[in-house]
Design a protein that fits this description.
This protein is of the alpha/beta class. It folds into five domains: 211 residues, no CATH class; 688 residues, ABC transporter type 1, transmembrane domain (ABC transporter transmembrane region fold, Up-down Bundle), CATH 1.20.1560.10; 111 residues, no CATH class; 242 residues, Rossmann fold (3-Layer(aba) Sandwich), CATH 3.40.50.300; 210 residues, Rossmann fold (3-Layer(aba) Sandwich), CATH 3.40.50. The chain is built from 55 helices and 25 strands. Strands 9-10-11-7-12-13 form a six-stranded mixed sheet, with helices on both faces. Strands 19-22-23-16-24-25 form a six-stranded mixed sheet, sandwiched between helices. A four-stranded antiparallel sheet has the order 1-2-3-4. Helix 10 packs across helix 11, helix 14 runs antiparallel to helix 17 and helix 19 packs parallel to helix 22. The radius of gyration is 40 Å and the shape is elongated. The termini are far apart.
């Protein structure tokens, strides 16, 4: 039964009153609560309490500045006006009638009565948040107050009583509506709270501002204004994040959800609120998106009736107003959806995953191994060896994927790449249901418009195309999976290059490593190009499918009905356009979803990997009981296939000094790691005291009396881990500064002299991993950190290896056994047993994976097994004691590049060493400078650089012609359809015009204009085949040209990526050492990964889209010339307003995009650094501290992205509002000018709608392009750095043949503005001579090495090798013909073969021979390699080297295919040094520089290595230059060079130097504890080489 309009109006009024009554309920509750006695007492008590919530706390200033009184007073005044206006309407209706509107009028009075209650509540409610909520209810009820009378008027107006149309009633009615509307707006302007602060910074105002401020993104205006005035932004200028998106909270929510769900479900549960909002808004927008077209239809229908009796101007004006309102509402919902998908979904998911991944890395097992070699049998001959080893290497490569997953960089990749892909999909996944909904709506319309037969005929095309689409989508997905794998591999290789860059440059291997990086890069780009090609196929299908769908459907329709009308054609094309966008979105989103699923699986696999478990039993001291320990693995491994330390029974005395000794690789570091809980306990029990949690230590309240916590542990790793911070911060390590203790630590660790020489003392900034410190300094700072700590248990690995005897004795006396060491449990691994023995309480000797001896040191002295060790060490102990007495021995801690700069240029007195007075200090210089950031717009040079690398000028002219022709063909096709349908009946034109406005941008411009001209072409229906044929032909051409556009622009993108990458790799590999040392690896990696991800994957698309949108705007403007000049005036005005907004937007967005790019690097740097120092961090119990640091870095990136997207929404909202305003003005114009008919009105309005879209899309695409070009800007910045001079003459082919080195008057400095460090140095090394270089710290020994390899260029003087001036020849020729063994060994992941011979230049026999010469392997009498560990230094301490059933551990070096993990971490420090020595032996250079590379091996192995050096690089083979740390190493050399202050103070044979009265060398020998031994060698006429020869015989 139909409801009458009067009843409908009554229902509307009653429903409105009900809604308002419900909205007023919170106001009633607020009033009642406010006047309760309890509430009054609470308010009086809380007067002085400042506002605070989970986001932050208000300050007295922000509370004082906060006010909403004006809004509340205005709402109250308007409520009074509205009440009396409604009362006047009710009284007027009661007095004059009719009764049909009487009840509705009085219902309005009731509504205003409820408004009065609401106004009262706003004044009595003290809480601003509750007033804000009341404002929201007031807004809703006020909107209802506007809507109800309008609905009633529409229902009653045309058929209602004539009295409702008198002027008095209309005036009161309009006043009523206006008052309610203004009241709604004022209710929406109530602020939510005063500004709140966190960490001294204001919190983002999204949850501070009013409803309108939030809806219209007004809260970001002050920041944009600041960016324009300040001409830039920094991270500190951005506001703090609100609590919902802080990484700590995101991590907690996600981890809680992950406890009971798979990762994908956990993400949904943790972000349920945002995801619900996302899909709700998407559904609403799917319906709302049709509303402007409905309003447009209403306008056109009303205009068709203009001039007839049925025309009512009020109806036209109603639809004009409705058009504007509906567009504003639709815009609001759309923009809020786009804001929600990033701020509530995408960003929280990505940052949450980053935080969870880092937290997991802090808990995960610290697995360092690689898979063991598949080769176990020993080959019988050299040929078989080579073949077998190469097969093993090939099998090894099959497992690259899992090996990559275990590397540090793959872990970082989870955050850098995988979480980004999940972010992207989660952000736009709502488009899948939205597209399906639109498809259903479009199909419903089409079935009614053209009939089911025509529609099914068209859909048959889709059925044919779909299988091809599915195949292409699968191919695209598989190429994306491959691409991700290759990106991981590229990242690992690039990281390895950067980690080993010094070794690469010393060996002149830049070209080879460049080729290796380029090879993996080419594979990656090949996968990227394959992905692009399949994407082009998908794009072609998406273009062709809807075009052929419309062609077939219209052809069948025309065939059935004998013709085609404009209304059917245009409306159908509009709906097919909707189908086109939906069909395009679905496959792309599904493909993105599959990519995200792959990334999700990778992250989930990592999060589900084994964690470090508590393997120890709480006790009051450290003890092993029948324990078997092994390095951790993250998979099930047979104990027989692992290196195991077995049958360990030890009990370390509490507060005693324990020493662990043993040969290189015997398992000493494994024993320490097990105490720290970093190993797998296979059998038995390990007892370790349990330290209190960090938060229970109350470090800030610590005093000297309670400083030491007996159960706390501190760890000094074998490879010292130093952070990128000041020396002081590295030592304090988060503890409070105690001046007295700090000074004692500096003295005990012999750091006072070092700090005196550093430019900023203990505030000197240290590079990552202590790059600007010498090896000994890194060790001592690492030890100082442990000594200063509150730990009662000090675990120290190989403390004295990098220290000379004097410094070692100092640390032993004043640190290990001095005041700061006594009273603590000290467990020390060392080869210097003799030094430590006198005060050792407990001694452990390891051998071949077992405990050989353990017990009280005094008891062990009686043991025969230990006699050899004691004898060997006794001599060294004597030497050390004499050295301590004489106080004058060589300082082995040679300076590195940056330290020499410090020593020579800016020496000053250190205040910290003598006191804690920091006043008056200049601001310390940063070793690692802040990352450079451009300001302003992207420079034209950056665009030129990109386009130049992508292709020549003719190529770009061709691409531009392709894009222009595409737009021309699009317009031509639309024009042809117009010609086809121009003879159709005028009755359908209004519908045709409606469809024009709904159509795609390229489908309406000239078509609508030609329709307005109404050109009739006779015989159109008779030429159906002609029209259809041309239409299909044009459609196919459009598809081909459209596909070719993408093909060529994406191909250009690949070329540009390849060339930009080559330029960057070339520059970085040839950069000066100073630059490489001062730029963190994370920054360089960010260029190679995140920036190239942008350049590879997005930039090509963005350039193409920008070009297309610009041409689209041009086409619209050309069409606009054919319209009324008045409309063009509005178009020009709109363009000016849009440009103003765009320029304001770019001023902020450019800067924030740069901040966002720079904010990524610290995340990766922190992640990488924490993974390297994981053992130290966990031993100190500092994981929570590092989690907080990572939270801060993630939040900084989140801040930048938050504001980047916020600025984007700010612009988009304003552009759309301007567009809505322009469309409304244009609609008002066509309604108000009588001469404009429906045809011209349809075109004008469609133009108005399209113009806004075109302008906004063009500006948005340009903005995106400029933001994306930021990646090119950052890459070219590093590509254009100053590199080492690559010019010069080619060296002779066999040079050097003699190895004669002449240095003449050499003057060298580190920079032109710094004083020289070598001052006129002159000496000569004759052919095959062995020359030792001695001198104190700062004498210039390292500078000489750097000058020899031309890392420092000569200011004056020359270096000649075989008569050739090294400054005249090419750097590559120089460095490749020399060799150096550095103190810090550098190995690369791969196999033993790839480390010895990375570029396959030698046979297996030569490689095995080199390993044997450094005593890493030995052979049986028949020449076969012994696979067990019978020789010194051959046991694998880390990883999965197999062990036999008897417990013997196999020798990893027995097979050249044995794997080496990243950084060589599956070998001990000593083994790494030996492998580097073997690498040098393989190359057999004529000139060798040796920086005493045997510091980390045991004494017996050291003696064997010295013998190897003398035999391999001895007489008649190599000129040897050795930087000596001990006189005994070089005393039998041919010449000794004594340096001081950059000069040669003495040079000659040892005998000659000993004959110089008062000579430096003579005094060094006489003061040495080895004086008698040294003099016997010098004067006895017998060199050690001869001794070695005799021993060999």
């Amino acid at each position: 039964m139909a409801i009458s309009k009067e009843t409908g109006a009554l229902i509307a009024g009653a429903l409105g009153l009900t809604i308002v009554a419900v909205s007023t309920t919170p106001a009633l509750i607020s009033i009642a609560t406010r006047f309760s006695p309890k509430a009054r007492r609470g308010v009086s008590e809380a007067v002085e309490i400042l506002y605070e919530d989970q986001d932050g706390a208000a300050t007295s200033e922000s509370v004082k500045a906060f006010t909403d009184r004006l809004q509340r007073a205005s709402i109250a005044a308007l409520t009074v006006i509205g009440f009396f206006t409604s009362l006047a309407i009710a009284l007027l209706t009661t007095k004059r009638g009719p009764e049909s509107y009487l009840i509705e009028a009085w219902l309005q009075v009731g509504i205003w009565g409820f408004h009065a209650i609401h106004a009262v509540a706003l004044f009595v409610e003290p809480s601003p948040k509750k007033r804000f909520a009341l404002g929201g209810h007031g807004f809703i009820s006020s909107i209802v107050t506007v809507a109800v009378p309008c609905i009633e008027a529409v229902l009653l107006w045309s058929h209602g009583p004539h009295e409702l149309r008198n002027k008095e009633f209309i005036a009161l009615f309009c006043t009523h509506i206006a008052v309610a509307l203004i009241r709604a707006l004022l209710s929406a302007t109530l602020p939510r709270r005063p500004d709140v602060f966190r960490n001294g910074k204001i919190v983002d105002r999204e949850r501070t501002t009013s409803i309108i401020g939030r809806y219209a993104f007004f809260w970001v205006d002050p920041l944009l204004t600041f960016a324009i005035k300040n001409r830039g932004l920094s991270i500190s200028d951005l506001h703090e994040l609100n609590s919902q998106i802080r990484s700590r909270n995101l991590r907690e929510k996600l981890e809680k959800a992950k406890e009971s769900h798979r990762l994908w479900k956990a993400i949904i549960v943790a972000n349920a609120g945002g995801i619900t909002q996302q899909f709700t808004l998407a559904t609403v927008i799917s319906v709302l998106s049709f509303s402007p077209q409905i309003a447009l239809l209403g306008i056109l229908r009303s205009l068709e009736a203009r001039g007839t009796e049925s025309w009512d101007s009020y109806v036209s004006w109603f639809w004009v107003l409705a058009l504007g309102v509906l567009m504003v509402i639709t815009t609001g919902f759309e923009q809020w959806l786009f804001w929600i998908i990033q701020s509530r979904v995408g960003l929280p998911i990505a940052e949450g995953l980053a935080a969870v991944t880092f937290a997991k890395s802090m808990r995960r097992k610290d697995v360092k191994h690689t898979k063991k070699s598949t080769e176990t049998k020993q080959p019988d001959s050299e040929d078989q060896e080579q073949e077998s080893d190469r097969d093993g290497a090939e099998k090894q490569e099959d497992d690259d994927d899992s090996d990559e997953q275990k590397s540090r960089q793959s872990t970082v990749n989870l955050v850098a790449v995988d979480s980004k892909r999940i972010w992207d999909f989660s952000t736009y996944c709502y488009m899948i249901p939205q597209a399906i909904l639109k498809l259903l709506v479009a199909c419903g319309f089409l079935s009614r418009l053209i009939g089911w037969r025509s529609l099914l005929s068209g859909l048959a095309v889709t059925v044919v195309v779909t299988p091809v689409n599915i195949i292409a989508s699968k191919k695209y997905t598989s190429t994306q999976t491959e691409l991700m794998k290759y990106r991981d591999q590229k990242m690992a290789v690039v990281n390895e290059v950067l980690m080993g860059i010094r070794q690469i440059k010393f060996s002149a291997l830049e070209a080879q490593w460049h080729a290796k990086v380029s090879a993996i890069r080419n594979i990656e780009l090949g996968a990227q190009w394959a992905a692009f090609l399949w994407d082009v196929v998908l794009l072609s299908i998406w273009i062709l499918g809807p075009i052929m769908l419309s062609a077939v459907s219209l052809a069948v329709y025309a065939w059935i009905h004998g013709g085609l009308t404009a209304s059917v054609a245009f409306t159908a094309m509009a709906l097919f356009g909707a189908l086109e966008s939906s069909l395009a979105v679905l496959p792309e989103m599904i493909a993105n979803g599959l990519e995200a699923w792959v990334s999700l699986a990778r992250i989930e696999k990592y999060l589900d990997s084994p964690e470090k478990k508590t393997t120890t039993v709480p006790a009051d001291h450290v003890a092993f009981e029948e324990t078997a320990v092994a390095w951790p693995t993250d998979e099930e491994v047979d104990p027989e296939d692992r290196f195991v330390l077995r049958n360990v029974n030890l009990s370390f005395p509490p507060k005693g000094f324990s020493v662990i000794a043993g040969k290189t690789g015997s398992g000493k570091s494994l024993l320490l790691a097990s105490i720290l809980g970093e190993c797998d306990i296979l059998e038995g029990t390990l007892k370790v005291p349990v330290p209190p949690a960090l938060e229970d230590r109350f470090d800030d309240s610590a005093t000297p009396a309670n400083w030491i916590i007996d159960s706390a542990i501190a760890y000094v790793a074998q490879i010292p881990w130093i952070e990128n911070a000041s020396i002081k911060d590295n030592i304090l390590f988060g503890l409070p500064y105690d001046a007295q203790r700090y000074r004692k630590v500096l003295f005990a660790c012999a750091l006072e002299k070092d700090l005196d020489m550093l430019p900023d003392g203990d505030l000197t900034d240290i590079g990552a991993n202590g790059i600007n410190l010498s090896g000994g300094q890194r060790w001592r700072i690492s030890f100082a950190r442990a000594l200063y700590s509150r730990a009662g248990i000090l675990v120290m690995d190989d403390l004295f290896s990098a220290l000379d005897a004097h410094t070692g004795r100092h640390l032993y006396e004043h640190a290990v056994t001095g005041e700061l060491g006594t009273g603590r449990t000290r467990i020390l691994v060392t080869h210097h047993v003799g030094l430590c023995l006198p005060r050792t309480d407990y001694l452990v000797v390891l051998e071949d994976g077992t405990v050989k001896q353990a017990g009280n040191a005094s008891d062990l002295k009686e043991s025969d097994d230990f006699a050899e060790v004691l004898t060997q060490e006794h001599e060294e102990e004597t030497i050390d004691q004499v050295a301590e007495e004489n106080g004058d021995i060589l300082d082995m801690e040679e300076t590195t590049l940056q330290k020499v700069i410090s020593n020579r240029s800016q020496r000053r007195e250190s205040t910290t060493a003598n006191g804690d007075n920091d006043l008056g200090r200049p601001t310390p210089r940063k070793f690692v400078e802040d990352e450079k950031r451009e300001t302003g717009s992207i420079k034209l040079a950056v665009y030129k650089a990109y386009f130049k690398t992508a292709g020549p000028i003719p190529f770009w002219i061709f691409v531009v012609l392709l894009y222009v022709s595409y737009v021309v063909f699009i317009i031509g096709r639309s024009w042809w359809v117009n010609v086809w349908t121009s003879s159709s009946s005028t009755k359908s034109r209004a519908q045709g015009y409606l469809s024009v406005a709904q159509s795609q941008p390229e489908q309406h411009i000239l078509m609508a204009h030609q329709t307005a001209k109404a050109t009739n072409l006779a015989g159109a229906d008779d030429d159906l085949l002609l029209y259809l044929g041309v239409y299909i032909g044009l459609s196919i051409v459009i598809c081909i040209v459209g596909s070719l556009r993408y093909y060529f622009i994406l191909g250009a993108g690949i070329r540009a990526s390849r060339n930009l990458f080559q330029n960057l790799a070339y520059a970085v590999l040839r950069a000066p050492l100073r630059w490489l040392d001062t730029v963190p690896v994370g920054r360089i990696l960010n260029r190679f990964t995140a920036d190239f991800h942008m350049i590879d994957s997005r930039l090509g698309y963005d350039i193409g889209l920008t070009a297309y949108r610009m041409l689209d705007v041009l086409g619209v403007i050309v069409a606009g010339v054919l319209v009324s000049p008045l409309v063009m005036l509005f178009a020009a005005l709109l363009l000016g307003v849009c440009l103003r907004f765009a320029l304001r937007y770019l001023a902020g967005a450019r800067e924030v995009k740069r901040l966002e790019s720079n904010a990524k690097s610290p995340i990766y740097e922190q992640f990488g650094s924490a993974l390297i120092g994981l053992g130290t961090i966990r031993a100190f119990g500092k994981t929570s501290t590092y989690l907080e640091r990572m939270y801060a870095k993630i939040d900084a990136h989140c801040q930048a992205w938050w504001y980047l997207w916020l600025f984007n929404r700010w612009l988009s909202w304003r552009m759309n509002i301007v567009g809505a305003l322009f469309a409304t003005i244009t609609a008002a114009l066509v309604v108000s000018i009588p001469s404009i008919n429906a045809s011209l009105a349809g075109f004008a309005l469609s133009f108005a709608l399209q113009y806004t879209v075109s302008i906004s899309m063009a500006l948005r695409m340009y903005s995106n392009l400029e933001l994306d070009m930021n990646a090119v800007e950052r890459v070219t910045e590093y590509s254009n750095i100053a590199i080492e001079d690559q010019g010069g003459d080619d060296a002779p082919a066999a040079w050097p043949t003699e190895g004669r080195v002449e240095v003449e008057d050499l003057v060298v400095g580190y920079a032109p503005d710094l004083p020289p460090v070598l001052k006129g140095l002159t000496f000569t090394v004759e052919t095959n001579q062995r020359v030792g270089v001695v001198g104190r710290t700062g004498a210039g020994k390292s500078s000489l090495t750097l000058a020899l390899f031309r890392f420092l260029e000569a200011r004056e003087g020359h270096i000649y090798i075989d008569g050739i001036d090294v400054s005249k020849i090419k750097l590559h020729d120089l460095r490749s013909r020399l060799a150096i063994i550095p103190q810090d060994p550098v190995l690369f992941s791969g196999t033993i073969r790839t480390n010895l011979d990375p570029f396959d230049q030698y046979g297996d026999g030569e490689l095995y021979d080199a390993l044997e010469r450094v005593h890493l392997i030995s052979r049986n009498a028949d020449g076969t390699i012994i696979s067990s560990t019978n020789t010194p230094g051959t046991t694998t301490p880390v990883g999965t080297a197999p062990s036999s059933m008897t417990g013997k551990n196999a020798n990893i070096f027995a097979s050249l295919s044995s794997p080496i993990s990243e950084g060589g971490l599956n070998l001990s420090q000593g083994q790494r040094q030996l492998l580097c020595l073997a690498r040098a032996i393989v190359s057999r250079p004529k000139v060798m520089v040796l920086d005493e590379a045997t510091s980390a091996v045991d004494m017996s192995t050291d003696a064997l290595i010295q013998q190897s050096i003398r035999s391999e690089f001895g007489r008649n083979s190599t000129s040897l230059l050795v930087i000596a740390h001990r006189l005994s190493t070089i005393v039998d050399f041919d010449r000794i060079l004594v340096m001081d202050a950059g000069k040669a103070v003495e040079f000659g044979s040892p005998r000659e130097l000993m004959e110089i009265e008062g000579g430096v060398f003579r005094s060094l020998v006489e003061d040495s504890g080895e004086r008698r031994v040294l003099e016997d060698i010098i004067f006895g006429g017998q060199s050690r080489e001869q001794e070695d020869g005799e021993n060999a015989e």
